[in-house]
Structures are given as C-alpha cells and as structure tokens.
C-alpha cells in the first residue's frame, strides 16, 4: 500500500514537473518572460494580429488587415517564428537564437505567395548584424540585406509598463532603410509592447505615409491554426484541373505561363476575333435546335484562352431564370461545348504588350428552349 | 485501523487525481482573445472594407478572407457582401453574384437596389427584374434621380423599355433623362448613347425620319466622332430608300470606328454595339 501511494504521488509530481520544467528553465532568460507562455511555445502558438494603417492624408481613412505569427521553441535555444497573411499563406520565416536576454537572428526569408503576373523570387536575407531584440540591454542593432537595400533595426530604449494587469516592456527604436550606395532612404521610428505571457501585444511603426498599429487579437494553438490553414478557398473563378469537373478533353491544351489573367485585365474586351457580332455569326448556324430543349436560364461555360488562342479547361455553371442552380440537358451542354471547342478564332489578350493566358466565360441565355442572348 | 487505512487510501487517491488534474490544466492554457465593443466592431467592418482593393487583387483568397474577417464583425454590412459579389459578377458566376448582391440589397436597398438593377440590365439582360429594381430605387429616393454605377436610373429604365419593345415608354424616359442631365451639364456633354438609343426607339417604331434626325443631332453633338450613330443613321436612311446617304453614313461610320470612336463597355457588350465587320457586312448588303 505504501509503495502504491508513494508511486502515485511521485508520478503526479513528475507530471507536473515535466509540464513546468520548461517554465522554470526559461526564467533564466528574460526573453521567455515576454514571449507567449512556455508550454504554448513548446507546442507552438500562433498570434493573430490586426494591423491598422492610419494614412497621413486628408481623408484619414484607416485600413485593417490580418496577419498571423507563429512562435515555437522546442529546446529553449532556438525560436522559430513564421508570419502568415490573412489567407494563411506564409510570407516570412525567421529563426532566432535565444542568447542571454535577447534574440539573435539566424535566418530570415521572405515569401511572395500571392500569384502575380511577374513571378517574384523568394528573398533570403543576409544577416549583417544579428541582434534583433534584447530585454536587458537597451541599445541593439540588427541589420539585414537583400543585396540591394539594407534594413537596420536600431533598438534605443526599454521601459517597464503594465497593460490589462500584465507586466510588460516597451521597446523603442528606429528602422533605417539604406540603399546599396549607403544613402539613407528612410528613418522610421517604432514602438513595441511585449507583455508577460502574451509576447508581442502591440506595435507601432511610424512611416512617412502613416502609422501602422499592430494589435494582438487572438491566440491560436499551432495545430488548430494548421487546420484553419488547410482551407480550400481559391481565387474566384480559378479552374482547378484536379478538382473541378472539366468537360473538355484538353489533350493538346496547355497554358503558356504560370499566371492566368482574367479576360478584362488585358488590352481588349473581345474574346473572339471580330467581337460578339462575329461570334454570333459563326456560332448560330452551328446550333442544332433539336439539341435544345424547353429550358430557361443561363448556361455558362468558363474556360481558358491561352496565349496561342487555344481554349481548354472548360467548366460549366447553370442557373435558372431566378438564379437558382439547375442542370441543363446534357445533350445541350455537350453540343454547345463542342461548338466552342471547335472554334478557332479566339482572340489572344495582351498584357503589357505580351500575349497572355486568360480566363473567360460565355453564357447562353435560354428562354423556353431558345437562345435569346449570348453574354457577356 | 483497517477503516482508517481505507480512508487514508481514498485521500491519497483523491490527491493523486487532483495532482493529475492540476498537471493537465497547466498544459491547457486559456488563450488570449480580445473582446471588441459594438462600436469597435462597426469601425472594424469599415476598416476591413477600406482595405479591400487597397492590398489585394480582386477575387484572390486573401481578399475573400479579408472580407470575411470584416463580416465576422459586421455581418450586416451591405458593402462587404457587395464586395464578395463583385468578382463573381465579372467572372460569370450568376448564382453567387445573385446571392451576394441580394444580401447587399436586403441590408441596404437605398444604396444597392439600383446597382443590382444595373447588373440585371447589363450582365443578364433581364429587363423585367432590372425595371423592378429601378422602380424600387425611385420609390426609396423620390426626391432625386439615382446614378448606380454612374448611370442614371432614367436612362437605364429607358433601355429596359426599349429592349422590351415599349418604345413610347422608352422615349419618355430618354426625354426625362435628357431633361435631368441638362439641369447639370450643357448639351454638348450629353452621352452619345442617349441620342443613339432614342433614335433606335423611333427607328423601331417605324418613325424613320425622326430617327434620322435624332442620329444626326447626336452626330453633330459628337463632332461627327461616333461610329455607332453613323451606322444607325445609315440604317435609317437605307430604310427610307436613301441609298447614297446610307452608304455615305457607313463610310463615316467605318472611318470613325477605325479612329477608335465607338461605344463599348467594360466586362459586357454595350447595347447595340457596332463592330467593324458589322459595318462592312451592311455595306455589302446595301451594294447588292
């Protein structure tokens, strides 16, 4: 019996000590006072921030965007911190060494997840001066370079504070942007507020254009964040060759580039050579009325016209006259799709003088089995 | 003694459970979450709306999530629902467009019902539904003429009637539109499409001389720089048997077209849009 009781108490204390040993050890560095709580850091925690930008203009419009920043430290020596945009795409990845009461940057990489016409490369910064932050020594200099510009973060002062009953530390300094010929481009003050157990709670960045105010709005466990990040939200209208029901065979079809524009991004409104007049003139004689049935509504084909004027990735959307989802007779859909796929006068759109791939759509408007309009 | 031991055993068991429970609690921290006041939520809805378009391209996931973040604070923001609808309408997604614009109208009819009417008219060519929205807009704001998407409701009502073959109603609304416009601008700033469509209404009514006269008035107002007006003048003259005048008008139409003076509209085809091959086909037809 004594043996059993002794074991029980020992196991219980072991469990508690195990859970908190991280905390006890961390107290050695002030860094852990001003990061999210130790057990959260161990499993990974994500801080959700709102960044309010108060523009210095006559309108005083304030805009707000969302950013997520993860923190994880499994060994108390290295802190990894990734920054994600509102759609959970990683935009920055940083690794710090925890030395003394400060953070020294080991690596910093910037990502460009948002697809744009001109592909942007990932930027891995060269760390020129690693001292990112220190909660004991007031003056610190951190500097990174992308080979063209340098950004230095010059910590100037520290002072204690208390917010929402949390003890904290206010860190102030100046960000300096320098060109490759050493001329100073910008000097922008910053103020960061770190609270015990919460980490970075608020930050202010005073640029010439206005003030950025970052505020912590929520903490999320890293594993829960990854669940949120596993969403399937895509660009509206993007056709996914793996998931969408593509009705064209596309054996010879390939987009020319990585980025597919919208039909209205380019130099022309027309998607067919000669415009809708020529399209109707070509298509109407090809329509077999025996394959149209007593249906009303909108039958839309969305597809890609590539830089060579070929079309592919044809998908459909069908609604009735009141915009409720409906299904048109398959014979009608196949017939019209076949006509579209056989046409060879698709107009290649140009963006900045260069032929491009573009999404477009054509809607057949039906009334009682007759095509009464072709849209848009 | 045995009872006491049993009691002691129970105590230790409870202590053990308590310690396990404490240990477990220490790993399940209560996470921070800011509670926003009603006023802050309202302001945030506006701020997310202001960020839409300023930071991300329309329709990409970043924009969608930003709008949804705004809606999490302001679910009744008509403007945010409308923003969700904007890329859908441009990219041919009728169901989603209808759903999102419908929500915007339900929440703020005064600002969005006319807009929806504009979409019914130009994107879906549904003249009955467009008219219902335009009429409702007039009732909501009886003291002035609304300009959804910078287009007068009178003008758009006139187009609806024109497309529904109600030519007198169309002409009536074109005249109301012209009268209203002339309160603010000189005649030379009138949109050439006003002359074009009003002329077409007379043309379709069979009043060809009046139609020709209106097309000419429009051409003069545009310093001759409008392919569409010349084209329809050619049609009116041709119908009146004036072949040489019709051919001359077609030459002018082609000339102006090639100079880039023709009507077109972003995202959709303009009503009665003229194309180069249309002008040439008509000339060939007349020359037969």
Mean of all residue-level pLDDT scores of chain B:
91
Supply the CATH class of the domain at 205-288 in chain B: Mainly Alpha
Poorly predicted regions of chain A: 4-26
Largest beta-sheet details of chain B: none
Structural Rg of chain A: 29 Å
Number of helices of chain A: 5
How many structural domains of chain A? 2
Q: Quick check: average pLDDT of chain A?
A: 90
The dominant shape of chain B is elongated
Amino-to-carboxy terminus distance of chain A: 84 Å
Q: What is the multimeric organization of the chains shown?
A: heterodimer
Tell me about this structure.
The complex is a heterodimer of chains A (376) and B (288). Chain A folds into two domains: 29-229, Outer membrane phospholipase (ompla), Chain C, CATH 2.40.230; 261-375. Chain A contains five helices and 20 strands. Chain A has helices at 2-26, 38-43, 222-229, 275-283, 330-342, and strands at residues 45-55, 62-72, 78-84, 90-99, 102-110, 123-124, 126-134, 140-145, 149-163, 166-179, 184-195, 199-206, 210-221, 261-262, 297-305, 311-319, 350-351, 354-355, 358-367, 370-375. In chain A, the strands form three sheets. Chain A has a twelve-stranded antiparallel barrel. In chain A, strands 14, 15, 16, 19 and 20 form a five-stranded mixed β-sheet that branches. Mean pLDDT of chain A is 90; it is low at 4-26. Chain B is mostly helical and 288 residues long. Among the domains of chain B are: 42-107, Serine Threonine Protein Phosphatase 5, Tetratricopeptide repeat (Alpha Horseshoe), CATH 1.25.40; 205-288, Serine Threonine Protein Phosphatase 5, Tetratricopeptide repeat. Chain B contains 14 helices and no strands. Chain B has helices at residues 2-27, 38-51, 61-73, 78-90, 94-107, 109-122, 127-140, 153-163, 167-184, 192-205, 208-221, 227-239, 243-258, 276-287. In chain B, α5 (94-107) packs antiparallel against α6 (109-122) and α10 (192-205) packs antiparallel against α11. Mean pLDDT of chain B is 91; it is low at 18-27. The chains are: A alpha+beta (376), B mainly alpha (288). At the A-B interface, α1, α2, β1, β2 and β13 of A face α1, α2, α3, α4 and α5 of B.
């Amino acid at each position: 019996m004594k043996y059993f009781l002794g074991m029980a108490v020992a196991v219980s204390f072991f469990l508690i000590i195990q859970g908190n040993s991280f905390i006890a050890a961390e107290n050695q560095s002030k860094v852990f006072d001003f990061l999210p709580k130790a057990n959260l850091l161990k499993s990974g925690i994500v801080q959700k921030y709102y960044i309010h930008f108060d523009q210095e203009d006559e309108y005083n419009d304030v805009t707000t965007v969302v950013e997520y920043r993860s923190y994880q430290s499994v060994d108390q020596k290295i802190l990894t911190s990734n920054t994600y945009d509102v759609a959970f795409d990683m935009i920055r990845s940083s690794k710090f060494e925890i030395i003394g009461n400060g953070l020294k940057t080991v690596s910093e990489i910037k990502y460009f997840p948002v697809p744009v016409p001109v592909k942007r490369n990932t930027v891995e910064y060269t760390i020129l001066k690693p001292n990112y932050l220190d909660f004991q020594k007031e003056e610190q200099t951190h500097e990174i370079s992308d080979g063209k510009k340098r950004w230095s973060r010059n910590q100037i002062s520290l002072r204690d504070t208390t917010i929402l009953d949390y003890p904290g530390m206010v860190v102030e300094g100046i960000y300096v942007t320098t060109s490759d010929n050493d001329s100073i481009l910008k000097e922008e003050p910053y103020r960061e507020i770190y609270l015990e157990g919460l980490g970075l709670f608020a930050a202010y960045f005073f640029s010439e254009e206005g003030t950025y105010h970052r505020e912590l709005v929520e903490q999320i466990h890293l594993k829960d964040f990854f669940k949120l990040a596993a969403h399937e939200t895509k660009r509206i209208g993007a056709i996914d060759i793996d998931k969408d029901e593509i009705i064209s065979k596309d054996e010879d079809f390939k987009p020319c580039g990585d980025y597919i524009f919208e039909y209205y991004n380019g130099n022309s409104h027309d998607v067919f050579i000669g415009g809708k007049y020529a399209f109707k003139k070509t298509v109407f004689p090809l329509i077999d009325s025996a394959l149209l049935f007593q249906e009303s509504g909108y039958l839309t084909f969305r597809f890609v016209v590539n830089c060579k004027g070929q079309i592919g990735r044809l998908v459909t959307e069908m609604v009735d006259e009141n915009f409720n989802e409906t299904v048109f007779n398959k014979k009608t859909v196949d017939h019209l799709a076949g006509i579209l796929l056989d046409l060879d006068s698709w107009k290649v759109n140009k963006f900045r003088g260069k032929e491009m791939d573009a999404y477009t759509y054509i809607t057949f408007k039906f009334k009682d089995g007759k095509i009464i309009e072709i849209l848009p | 003694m045995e009872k006491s031991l049993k009691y002691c055993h129970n105590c230790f068991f409870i202590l053990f459970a308590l310690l396990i429970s404490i240990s477990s609690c220490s790993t399940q921290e209560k996470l921070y979450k800011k509670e926003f006041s009603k006023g802050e939520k309202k302001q945030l809805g506006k701020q997310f709306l202001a960020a839409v378009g300023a930071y991300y391209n329309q329709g990409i996931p970043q924009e969608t999530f930003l709008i949804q973040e705004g809606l999490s604070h302001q679910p009744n923001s008509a403007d945010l629902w409308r923003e969700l609808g904007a890329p859908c309408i441009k990219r041919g997604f009728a169901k989603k467009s209808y759903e999102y614009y419908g929500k915007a109208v339900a929440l703020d009819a005064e600002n969005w019902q006319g807009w929806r009417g504009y979409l019914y008219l130009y994107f879906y060519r549904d003249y009955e539904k467009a008219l219902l929205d335009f009429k409702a807009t007039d009732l909501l704001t009886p003291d002035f003429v609304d300009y959804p998407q910078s287009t007068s409701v009178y003008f758009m009502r006139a187009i609806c009637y024109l497309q529904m073959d109600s030519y007198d109603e169309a002409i009536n609304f074109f005249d109301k539109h012209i009268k209203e416009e002339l309160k603010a601008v000189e005649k030379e700033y009138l949109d050439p499409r006003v002359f074009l469509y009003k002329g077409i209404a007379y043309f379709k009514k069979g009043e060809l001389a009046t139609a020709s006269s209106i097309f000419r008035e429009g051409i003069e107002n545009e310093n001759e720089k409008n392919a569409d007006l010349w084209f329809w003048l050619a049609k009116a003259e041709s119908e009146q048997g004036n072949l040489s005048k019709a051919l001359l008008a077609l030459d002018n139409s082609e000339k102006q077209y090639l100079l880039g003076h023709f009507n077109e509209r972003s995202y959709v085809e303009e009503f009665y849009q003229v194309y180069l091959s249309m002008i040439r086909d008509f000339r060939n037809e007349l020359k037969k």
